[in-house]
C-alpha cells in the first residue's frame, strides 16, 4: 500500500515537472512512466486510499467515544501540520515574494494558507468562475487537496456509527458529479469535477465503504485478489493517455477495481517494512516537490535535459527521472529532519496541555 501511495505522489510531481519545465521547452513525452495517470487522477486515488486507511485505523485504534474522537483529531492534526508548517515556513523564507504576497492577501486567504480548513472551497468559489489559488501560499498550490482531507477527517469519526451514512454521502456526491458531467461533458472541469469537494467526497466514501465491507466479506481480504485487482486497475488506466477525457468508463472502471483491491492489498503489505517506509515518503514528496520547482528546477533543467545526446524524448525521460530522484531525496530529508522532530514536539506540547488540564 505504501508503494502505491508513493507512486501516486510521484505522478503528481512528474506531471508538474512536465507542465512547468518540459512543456515550455516543447518537450512532449508518452505516458508510460505514469501508466496513464495524471495529477488529477492521482488525487482522486489518494482520496480513496485515505478513506480506507482512516476507516481502518478508526475502527481498530480509537474508542468510539469523545476521548477516542479527540485523540483521533489530535493525531490527524499532527500528521498534517507537522510537515506542512515547516514546509510553509521554508517557502516563505526561500521563495521570493511569498511573504509579501501573503501579507497582501485577504484575511480569509491568509487563514486558509495557515490552517488549510476550507482552502478547497476558496479555490473553487472565492473568484468563481475562475479558480482562486491566492487561498494558498503560491509555492504550494497543491495544498488545496489538504482542505478536502481535513474535511474528511472531521467527518470520519461520525461515519463509523452507521455505514448507511457513508453510502448516502457517496450517492449524493456522485449524483452531483453525474449532473455536472452531463451538463459540461466528460472533460475535466477544474471547479465542478476537481476542486469542488462535493463532487469528490464520494472517493473518500469508496475507500471508507470497502473497508467496512471487508469486515463482512472476507474474500476482499485475499492478498491474491488484491494484487490481481490492482494489476487490472493499472492496466485499465494505462489503456489511454494521461490527458484523455476525464470522467470516462476507463477512469471509473480503474477506480472501481482499485477500490476493491485495497483490503487485500493492505493485508498483503501492512507488515512489509520497506513498503511502509515508502508510504512515509508519499506526503513529504507531495508537499516538497513544488518547492523544488521554484528553488531547484531552473538550475536542474540545464543539466538534466541533454537533448543533444539523447534526443528530445530520451532527454525528457531522463529529466523526469532526475527530478523524481531529487524529489525523493528531499522527501526523505523533510521526513527525517522536519516531520519527525516537529511531530514529536507537537505531541509533547499537546500531552503537556492535557496533563495540566487534568
List the helices and strands and how they pair.
Elements: H1 2-22, H2 39-61, H3 66-94, H4 98-104, H5 107-115, H6 119-125, H7 144-159, H8 163-184, H9 191-195, H10 197-214, H11 223-237, H12 249-269, H13 273-280, H14 282-295, H15 297-304, H16 307-357
Helix pairs in contact: 1-2, 1-13, 1-14, 1-16, 2-7, 2-10, 2-12, 3-7, 3-14, 3-16, 6-7, 8-10, 10-12, 11-12, 14-16, 15-16
In short:
This protein has 358 residues and is mainly α. It is built from 16 helices and no strands.
Architecture overview:
The protein has 358 residues and is an all-alpha fold. 77% of the residues lie in helices and 0% in strands. It has helices at 2-22, 39-61, 66-94, 98-104, 107-115, 119-125, 144-159, 163-184, 191-195, 197-214, 223-237, 249-269, 273-280, 282-295, 297-304, 307-357. The chain is globular and about 60 Å long.
The portion of residues forming beta strands comes to under 5%
Write the H/E string, N to C: HHHHHHHHHHHHHHHH
What structural class do the secondary elements suggest?
A: mainly alpha
Total number of beta strands:
0
Q: What is the alpha-carbon Rg in Å?
A: 20 Å
How helix-rich are the residues, as a percent range?
Answer: over 70%
Report how far apart the termini are: 39 Å
Which regions are unreliable across 5 or more consecutive residues at pLDDT < 50?
none
Structural shape: globular
* SS element count, helices: 16
Largest sheet: none
Mean pLDDT: 93
